[in-house]
C-alpha cells in the first residue's frame, strides 16, 4: 500500500534546502508562528466534475493551517502545512476529515546570501480528490508566470509533489546569471481510467543585462525530461531572448521569445519524433497606489499533465486587484488555456476558461471575511477529457494572527 504522507523525495528536498540555508553565513533571524483557521460555505454546481448528470451541493470546509515564517537574508521563508475538512449537505459519501492535504515551502523574495549571491527555494505537496482544488494549489509561486495545467478531470485521488531551487549571481554590476532546476511528480492514487501519472525534471539558465535603469535584456535556455506511466517519454529543449522595459512610472512590459524542440519516443526501439514550436510570453503590468492589473499571454511546450502527453500550451490571463478603502479589497481574474498534444493523432485537444471575482473585508487585524464566485468551462476536441461546466459561490471567514517565537 502506498504511503499517504509526503514522499521521501519531498522531505529530502525540504531538508536539503533548510540544511543549505543553515550552513550559510550567520545572520540574525526572526521566527514567527502564524496559525490560521478558515471556515467556508460554498455552493458548487458540479461536485463530481462530470460532463452529464451534474450534481450540485452545499459544502462546508474548515481549513486549519500553521505557517512558520523565518525572516533572514533580507527576505523570509515560509514553511506551512494544513488540511481541509469537508462536509456535504446532500452527498455525504464525499465527506472527509482530510479532503485535501497541503504542505509548502516558499520564499516571497530571493534570499540575498551575499551582496552578489541569492537563492530562491520552493517546494510543495498536495493530495486531494478534487482537480479544481489541486489546480488552485499547484500554480507557480513565481509572480508573472503563466499557470500550469488547468484541466479538470473526474473526482479521483491525486498527489502532486514539486520542488525547485533558483540561484542568482551578480557577474558584473549590470549582469545577472541565473541557474536553476527542479522536479515535479503527479500520481493518481486510485488508478482512474484514462489518467496517467507523470514526472518532470527541469533545468534552466539565463543571463540578464541591465542596459539602463528602465531597460534590461538577455537570453535564456531551458530543458526538461518528461516521463509518463506506460507512455513514451519526451525531452524538451528551448531557448530565446528576453526583455523588460519600464514604459512609465506605472507600466512595465516583459517579453520572452524563442523556439522549442520536443523529442518524443515513439515506443518502437530508439525511434524518436522531433517537433519544433515557437514559444513566447508577453505581459503588461499596471500599478498605481493599491491597484494592480496584469495582462499576460504565453505559448510553450509543456510536459506535465493528466493525460500522459507533451502538449503545446497557450495561455491568456487577466488579473485585477485593488484596495478601495482602508479595510476593503476586491479582485477579478480570468484565464483561457489550450492544451494540444504534439503526437500526430492529436490525442489531447482541450480548452479551459475560468472567471473569478471576489471582495474581502478585514473586520480586525486578525479576522477577515470574503465573498467570491467563479465560472469554469472546459471543451474537449479529442478522445481524452470531457466537456465540463462548474460554477461556485463562496462565503468564508479567516482567523489568523502572528506570534513571535524569537
Please provide a written account of the structure.
The chain has 406 residues and is mainly beta. The protein has a single domain (8-401), classed as Beta Barrel (Porin), CATH 2.40.160. 5% of the residues lie in helices and 65% in strands. It contains two helices and 20 strands. The protein has helices spanning 8-22, 131-137; strands spanning 30-44, 57-72, 75-88, 96-107, 111-114, 117-128, 158-172, 175-188, 198-210, 215-228, 231-246, 251-265, 272-288, 291-302, 311-325, 328-341, 349-364, 367-380, 388-400, 403-404. The protein has an 18-stranded antiparallel beta barrel. A hairpin with a 4-residue loop joins strand 11 (231-246) and strand 12 (251-265). The longest helix is centred in the N-terminal third of the chain and has 15 residues, at 8-22. It is globular and about 55 Å long. The model is unreliable at 1-7 and 13-26 (pLDDT under 50).
Amino acid at each position: 500500500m502506498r504511503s499517504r504522507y509526503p514522499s521521501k523525495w519531498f522531505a529530502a528536498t525540504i531538508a536539503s534546502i533548510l540544511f543549505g540555508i543553515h550552513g550559510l553565513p550567520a545572520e540574525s533571524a526572526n521566527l514567527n508562528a502564524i496559525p490560521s483557521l478558515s471556515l467556508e460555505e460554498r455552493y458548487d454546481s458540479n461536485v463530481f466534475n462530470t460532463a452529464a448528470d451534474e450534481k450540485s451541493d452545499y459544502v462546508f470546509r474548515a481549513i486549519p493551517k500553521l505557517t512558520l515564517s523565518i525572516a533572514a537574508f533580507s527576505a523570509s521563508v515560509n514553511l506551512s502545512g494544513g488540511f481541509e475538512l469537508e462536509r456535504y449537505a446532500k452527498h455525504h459519501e464525499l465527506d472527509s476529515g482530510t479532503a485535501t492535504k497541503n504542505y509548502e515551502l516558499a520564499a516571497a523574495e530571493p534570499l540575498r546570501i551575499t551582496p552578489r549571491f541569492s537563492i530562491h527555494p520552493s517546494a510543495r505537496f498536495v493530495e486531494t480528490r478534487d482537480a479544481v482544488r489541486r489546480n488552485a494549489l499547484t500554480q507557480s509561486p513565481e509572480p508573472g508566470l503563466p499557470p500550469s495545467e488547468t484541466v479538470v478531470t473526474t473526482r479521483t485521488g491525486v498527489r502532486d509533489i514539486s520542488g525547485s531551487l533558483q540561484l542568482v549571481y551578480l557577474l558584473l554590476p549590470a549582469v545577472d546569471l541565473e541557474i536553476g532546476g527542479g522536479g515535479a511528480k503527479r500520481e493518481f492514487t486510485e488508478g482512474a481510467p484514462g489518467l496517467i501519472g507523470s514526472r518532470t525534471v527541469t533545468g534552466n539558465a539565463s543571463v540578464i543585462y541591465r542596459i539602463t535603469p528602465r531597460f534590461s535584456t538577455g537570453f535564456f535556455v531551458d530543458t526538461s525530461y518528461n516521463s509518463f506511466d506506460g507512455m513514451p517519454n519526451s525531452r524538451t529543449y528551448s531557448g530565446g531572448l528576453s526583455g523588460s522595459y519600464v514604459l512609465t512610472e506605472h507600466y512595465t512590459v516583459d517579453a520572452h521569445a524563442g523556439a522549442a524542440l520536443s523529442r518524443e519516443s515513439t515506443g518502437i526501439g530508439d525511434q524518436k519524433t522531433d517537433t519544433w514550436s515557437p514559444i513566447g510570453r508577453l505581459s503588461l503590468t499596471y500599478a498605481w497606489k493599491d491597484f494592480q492589473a496584469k495582462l499576460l499571454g504565453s505559448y510553450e511546450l509543456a510536459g506535465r499533465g493528466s493525460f500522459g502527453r507533451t502538449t503545446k500550451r497557450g495561455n491568456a490571463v487577466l488579473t485585477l486587484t485593488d484596495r478601495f478603502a482602508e479595510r476593503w479589497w476586491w479582485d477579478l481574474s480570468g484565464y483561457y488555456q489550450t492544451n494540444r498534444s504534439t503526437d500526430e493523432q492529436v490525442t489531447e485537444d482541450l480548452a479551459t476558461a475560468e472567471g473569478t471575482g471576489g471582495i474581502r473585508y478585514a473586520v480586525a487585524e486578525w479576522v477577515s471575511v470574503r465573498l467570491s464566485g467563479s465560472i469554469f468551462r472546459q471543451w474537449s476536441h479529442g478522445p481524452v477529457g470531457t466537456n465540463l461546466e462548474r460554477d461556485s459561490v463562496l462565503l468564508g471567514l479567516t482567523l489568523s494572527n502572528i506570534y513571535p517565537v524569537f
